[in-house]
UniProtKB/TrEMBL annotation:
It comes from Propionibacterium acidifaciens F0233. This is Acyl carrier protein. Residues 5-80 form the Carrier domain. It comes from the Bacteria. The keyword Secreted does not apply. The modification O-(pantetheine 4'-phosphoryl)serine is found at S40. It is found in: Cytoplasm. Residues 1-82 form the EAL domain.
Length: 82
């Protein structure tokens, strides 16, 4: 099971790959839409990559709740324990 820090690191790599956002800009308090300019199509790609990376399932209805980097990290952490 990945730690919070490992999840954040992997998420930063994914967001960088998908949207070209510099890794150092991807901090827990950042909003995907407002701060990082992630559009809905890129968000789908990010969610898909997170599912693959951590072998978890993120239902479509849960994606709306992932508005910040911290939300996504917390979600992955909880999903790994489920």
């Amino acid at each position: 099971m990945a730690t919070n820090e490992e999840i954040l690191t992997k998420l930063a790599e994914i967001v960088n790959d998908v949207a070209g956002v510099p890794v150092e800009d991807i901090q827990p308090d950042k909003s995907f839409i407002d701060d990082l300019d992630i559009d809905s199509l890129s968000m789908v790609e990010i969610v898909y990559a997170l599912q693959e990376a951590f072998n978890i399932d993120i239902p479509d209805e849960d994606v709306k709740g992932l508005s910040t980097v911290a939300d996504a990290v917390d979600y992955v952490e909880k999903a790994q324990k489920a």
